[in-house]
């Protein structure tokens, strides 16, 4: 497979400049004294150089796992530690593997941020070595995709792809957290065999049997009890949880027979995607109280209790829509009596959803309030608000399209953008969402341009997956007025057709 090269010359040069080992097994030096207090940018640069791992990829992996929060050495729900989520459980021993590779004590890998980042880099590099990535291949971020998928230790290829896609999505969106920055960039991910696995990001793949907007991935049969609710039990509660782990990792954990836990639904932080894992009629083991398990539906939300950055507006809205549907279906009161936190279950030892969960916002969305003060949707057929040159064709090929059709063009070394115009009512912060059909032949790194008050910002989206649904590309400060707000450029090193379908802009 021939891949377009990513425009990462500056990154490659910086890595080469500090490269300690040319090929073969990297050195396993312990962090210097005081490394625990070293700034995170330096810790990521050191780990990347020492293990010949692309620095931006290492940051994206850690961000997808923990939002760069080591959680003071406390484990995730699946037994993962630190920013890079080094795991120690019956089926995943990446923590012990990191200790073996780095010669660092397990306890240090759990609690020391710099050591943990070194450990994550070492484990990721070991997967690259097992896949045969040589020195040249290691300089192309796209070639690391399968190593990232292996790092997940997912229970199935489809979950490994979901995990790796989340990491690579961060490269396209960019990262600015805890003093660490990764600029949005074009990356063509070489999925290899994973390209043929089921895409859990694609809404139309396998729909939930109880809530069609969600995907369906069954939990392991040993992690819940088959029942016939509402015949044998009435459903009169929704219990809100926080996963203490990533979206893909939680889904994988619920498929692990050693977990002995599950929930009916899992909600993704970045865009509100939902996966159902236990049928509503069956009893998921989520509340730690058999009576409440029998009578309730559990909804897990990606993130960690002590980190508010996971609780996005997209997550609140998607989860609230699900909860509203469940309340309507089963006659559950749309109040804090019918909708409770895990910490409110009698005898609970868990604190989720925690103090950062905004119950006021959530309940407002559940009851139908809290709609954006202003929102507009612009399709490629909206009169007077979409412009594109004659180089853009028109197609109705995909059933995932928004409206009657969508536009497409070949990538070229010239911008030739298609633009959506909107009348922004006042200067402020707006959420921008895009809609596109997905297809293996569509572009792996589509540049969406947002005309912000401080200049154009570009976000890269892989249009091969995640189609047929609104997909948030971020929040931006926009000026008031009528102008071209969002565009799609053809200038990309990504492969495949560039698609322009619809955008939605909402005041937040």
From TrEMBL:
Alphabetized UniProt keyword annotations: Cell wall biogenesis/degradation, Hydrolase, Signal
Classification via InterPro entries: Amidase/PGRP_sf, Amidase_domain, CBD-like_Golvesin-Xly, Lysozyme-like_dom_sf, NAMLAA_amidase_2
Gene Ontology molecular functions: N-acetylmuramoyl-L-alanine amidase activity
Example of a GO biological process term: peptidoglycan turnover
Catalytic activity, as annotated: Hydrolyzes the link between N-acetylmuramoyl residues and L-amino acid residues in certain cell-wall glycopeptides
Pfam families, sorted: Amidase_2, Golvesin_C
Enzyme nomenclature, EC number: 3.5.1.28
Gene3D superfamilies according to UniProt: 1.10.530.10, Peptidoglycan recognition protein-like (3.40.80.10)
Domain N-acetylmuramoyl-L-alanine amidase: 224-354
Signal peptide positions on this chain: 1-29
Name of protein: N-acetylmuramoyl-L-alanine amidase
Organism: Nonomuraea turkmeniaca
